[in-house]
Specification:
The complex is a heterodimer of chains A (286) and B (590). Chain A has 286 residues and is an alpha+beta fold. In chain A, the strands form 4 sheets. Chain A has a 5-stranded antiparallel β-sheet with strand order 9-6-10-13-14. In chain A, strands 1, 2, 3 and 4 form a 4-stranded antiparallel β-sheet that branches. Chain A has a 3-stranded antiparallel β-sheet with strand order 5-11-12, covered by helices on one side. The relative contact order of chain A is 0.17. Chain B folds into 2 domains: 301 residues, Rossmann fold, CATH 3.40.50; 226 residues, Rossmann fold. Chains A and B meet through α4 and α5 of A and α13 and α14 of B. Chain A: It comes from Streptomyces globisporus. Chain A: It holds the Pfam family Peptidase_M24.
Chain lengths: 286, 590
Amino acid sequence: MTGLAKAVQDANTPELRGFREVQRLAYACAEAVAGQLRSGVTEREAARMQRVWLRERGVRDWFHLPFAWFGDRTAFAGFKVPLQFFPTDRKLEPGMPFILDMAPVYKGFTADVGYAGCLGLNPLHDKLLADLEAHRELILREVRERRSLREIYEDVERLMTAQGYANRHRAYPFGVIAHKVDRVAERRWSPQVFGFGTQALKGLVSDALHGHREGWSPLWSPYRFSDHPPQPGLWAVEPHLGFRGTGAKFEEILVVTDSKDPEQSAFWLDDDLPHVRRWAEEKVAA
Amino acid sequence: MNLSQARERTVGTGGVELCVAELGDAGRPTVVLVHGYPDSKEVWSDVAVRLAEHWHVVLYDVRGHGRSTAPTPLRGGFTLEKLTDDFLAVIDTVSPDRPVHVVGHDWGSVQSWEFVTVGRTEGRIASFTSMSGPSLDHFGHWIKRRISRPTPRRVGQLLGQGAKSWYVYMLHTPVLPELAWRGPLGKHWPGILERLEKVPAGDYPTASLPNDAAHGAWLYRDNVRARLSRPRPDAYAHAPVQLITPTGDSFLSERLYDGLEDRVPTLVRRSLPAKHWVPRTRPDQLASWIDEFVTANESAARDGGPVQQTVAQGPYAERFGGQLILVTGAASGIGRATAFAFAEAGARIVAVDRDAEGAARTAEMARLIGAPAAWGEAVDVSDEAEMEKLAARVAAEYGIVDVLVNNAGIGLSGSFLETTSEEWKKVLDVNLWGVIHGCRFFGKQMADRGQGGHIVNTASAAAFQPSRVLPAYSTSKAAVLMLSECLRAELAEKSIGVSAICPGIVNTNITATTRFAGADAAEEERLQKRTSRLYGRRNYPPERVADAILRAVVRNQAVVPVTPEARGARLLSRLSPGTLRSVARLKPPL
């Protein structure tokens, strides 16, 4: 990370440190649960393992409850209605890819992470994971260039197509590649609606209202309402590749500021994450 | 090498002398080829010489056939028990210490099923490849199941196979079959095979045919009634089996092998669009499948592990496993998705495109999802010389293409009056001439090989839907459609199928590269973006077109409209062309 970006982060220390802390916690959970996955574990069990792990460490509220997808469900094969995102009794088998996706709220800070892995060897899955790196670079570069979010979305999709993959984040609600996250008020009681925390949803809805008046949207989608330059704030970015029954994604927070300096105008909240370390290790190995 | 160079010997067993021929290095694992009825070992000549490059190939004339002597009396001399004695005598002579790989066709397969399901051959057979010959015991159970629990479908299957077995009833009549074979039938048989079964003329059938056929009638009389009425309950295979089913077999229904997995623990299924005499009509494909299966079982035996999964999974794996598929325009869109779909079925892929990087990428991904081999080739399909070179290179390095997919195409939109002659030339060069070059060079190789194949040409819904904004593109695609139909008529006699695929509005990057005649650069970019978004909103994935292509090849369909709008347009073009003409006048909202 460059000195300039660091300066911004230092300037926002308490704020960004809180987000970084919860994002690390979520990735630690993903790695811990992924390490415990065995053949025969179901998606429901994997989702519960994440929930329990995070509850034990003080998470009380959620942006959304943990998801787990196994096998061809990692590529959202045949998904037609949003209910299909919820964990099922699909069992994990050797060689199967899986994705763990969770968004805990911790001390009022939100994280939203996605962790792709597979049980045992799967060269195809390795390839997908490796090819995600180009997307992380592309997104940061174009956000710094202040391109319209809709155009960036299309460029990501174009890169996926060139790589031979299908864009699977299109399957998410509104087809989003990213959405804004923010601080969440800590309430003693925060129920969930369809797996989403009401406090966090409230924040998103109020952003949507503000944005609607000002001409931006907290949802980064392929549609016209995303045809605006990146809005300062924290964006949980989740490019999701699919290739014939195998899917892979990462999800992490991109910090966008209104700084004139390109380096400061956007940066990834944390570069010490499992997928980033994995790419670095692959480069060393190569 | 041919069969006349084989080392021959005679093996005596149970009062008959069997003529045994050997090819290839005797130190290699042994593959025994068993012929059917009314044949002699010469039916295998083309397959045997191909297999002899890697294996010790052994062929023998079944008792009473070819140069083996017949038992006396004939009645009771052809029971499956005696045929098993013969087989054991042969393999004890040619491969005393090592189990052998058996390959049987027709009655050779029927008797080989007996070999792999009786106890006394256990440990002597390493693998069995069966084609066009069921186990009589399995067949007996198959009939019993259908009689004891008749459903309309099962009764239909029973009647269907019953009708296909007409010759079995004839062979049970006394004397007449012998008279026919020694008389007119024997004389006309080669002609009948050539005409009805498409067996190429040559050194087969041999002069011994009338005697073979007359003696062989006892194969049926000695076994069929006995086994079908009282099938052995314990007929379980003790060796891995590869089942090759010709889909156009006039004598055996594909349904005969339903539920075979219950009695064969390790079963690999293959299917082949061909008629009954596959050893004569498809020697290349058979040799390559036998080779692959024997290799897999040999290495499993050597390493002591289970047999490696040699066949890809998926609905079309039986049909395309190991075949060579060439797809043009394979760096993106429908071409790439088609290459992947074939790769998933276990085919070898040649991905051709102008875009070398994209073609290489397609090949790389194809290998990751199941293609045993895949290559990217950077060629412009509109360049005749390049295509000719490509055809020569592919034939020399990878083999003859089994399925050719002429898919490369470019878009050109804009009114006729604003389209320049250069633009016309360009679109025709790629969309039409590209297909012509592909069909000429690769189609010729397929036809010369004479072992069937398939050509798929990507036309378009624009081939029957006229439009004021796509005159050049639609013209080129209509030409492709008609070319496919004509070619289909011509190549049918060579067992080469030709299909035209008419996708419709599919979400690929053709929109991003389409030329818009009469538009300046900025306007063109706007239109490309706009159409891309519209096509994106329609979001019909190229993978579904790829599925339609594989299905078209399997079913040998002539014209396949894919998306609902393409199917609708196709229907209207026949029912109410006037409606299509009115639609053609509309200006799309761009």
